[in-house]
Design brief:
By secondary structure, this protein is an alpha/beta fold. The chain contains 9 helices and 13 strands. The strands form 2 sheets. Strands 5-4-1-8-9-10-11-12-13 form a 9-stranded mixed β-sheet, with helices on both faces. The protein has a 4-stranded mixed β-sheet with strand order 3-2-6-7. Strand 12 and strand 13 form a beta hairpin. It is globular and about 50 Å long. InterPro entries: PfkB_dom, Ribo/fructo_kinase, Ribokinase, Ribokinase-like.
């Protein structure tokens, strides 16, 4: 297959060091459970999405903040090794972002995030704003201050880039969500997030887990199924979806959804979030196997 001419993607978002516990069942409130495994790996929605977009074939630059701690070096190395340009990554005093994840035997998970340096991310400098402006697609999430996400969307919109917002995690105030939605070309949400808020955007993409994803916009509505897989860990699947969607968005809505669904499914076969994104060749194979399926 000929090389894919993907977009120049700028991801503005969080980078974390993930501590993942593997358990038989997720603990209930007040309950202690024993873990059968423990690992530390790169993560954060912004970092995960940047790696996913790069592995899908896009030229990717990341705007993020890291601390001056030991985790920062590991995170920088991981991102650079995956072809993510770091000229938009700044260092701030204090710890980098971190997350504690528990994954049960059914591949369900819970996540607790400590923002750390992510909470200090801004797009005030001319250098960072130039990184955002020099992009075809700008991808945002909500693990950074909402004011920063709005400011980044304003810079991107003024530069003529397509603005994609992965409106997760939930928790932003309604008037902030409205301000961000008004600047977005595309909003990506899960089914719960879709029902919690009216998204006044040209293109709405709703992820449906193992059932794939749906598109609403341009006077069109359709769904794309997800390849059937035996999931090991669903952590990071939503980030892989968003990153691959951004990488292929300008190729067409259906192409982007189909490849994003395939990539997200493949990501659940790998434990952890930071290194679970598949490469373009694997996505090609998964898409080819389901090329004729589309639900109106």
């Amino acid at each position: 297959m000929a090389p894919r001419d993907c977009s120049r993607v700028c991801v503005v978002g969080s980078v974390n060091a993930d501590l993942t516990f593997t358990v038989r069942t997720l603990p209930r409130p007040g309950q202690t459970v024993l873990a059968s495994g423990l690992s530390m790996a790169p993560g954060g929605k912004g970092g995960n999405q940047a790696v996913a977009a790069a592995r899908a074939g896009a030229t990717v630059r990341l705007v993020a903040a890291l601390g001056d701690d030991g985790s920062a070096e590991m995170l920088r190395h991981h991102l650079a090794a995956n072809g993510v340009a770091l000229d938009g990554v700044v260092t701030v005093a204090g710890p980098s972002g971190s997350a504690v994840i528990t994954v049960d035997s059914s591949a369900e998970n819970t996540i607790v995030v400590a923002p750390g340096a992510n909470g200090a991310l801004s797009v005030d400098s001319a250098e960072v704003r130039a990184v955002i402006s020099d992009s075809d697609v700008v991808l945002l999430q909500l693990e950074i201050p909402i004011a920063t996400a709005i400011a980044a969307a304003q810079v991107a919109s003024s530069a003529g880039a397509a603005v994609i917002v992965n409106a997760s995690p939930a928790g932003a105030r309604p008037h902030d969500l409205l301000a961000l939605s008004e600047l977005a070309d595309v909003v990506v949400v899960n089914e719960t997030e879709a029902g919690a808020w009216h998204w006044p955007v040209p293109h709405l993409v709703i992820t449906r887990g193992a059932r794939g994803a749906s598109y609403l916009g341009d006077g069109e509505r359709f769904s794309v199924p997800s390849p059937a897989v035996r999931a090991v860990d669903t952590t990071g699947a939503g980030d892989v979806f968003a990153g691959v969607l951004a990488a292929h968005w300008l190729e067409g809505h259906e192409v982007a959804l189909r490849r994003a669904c395939a990539a997200a499914a493949l990501s659940t076969l790998v434990p952890g979030a930071g290194d679970c994104a598949p490469y373009a060749e694997a996505i090609d194979d998964a898409v080819s196997n389901r090329a004729t399926e589309r639900q109106l």
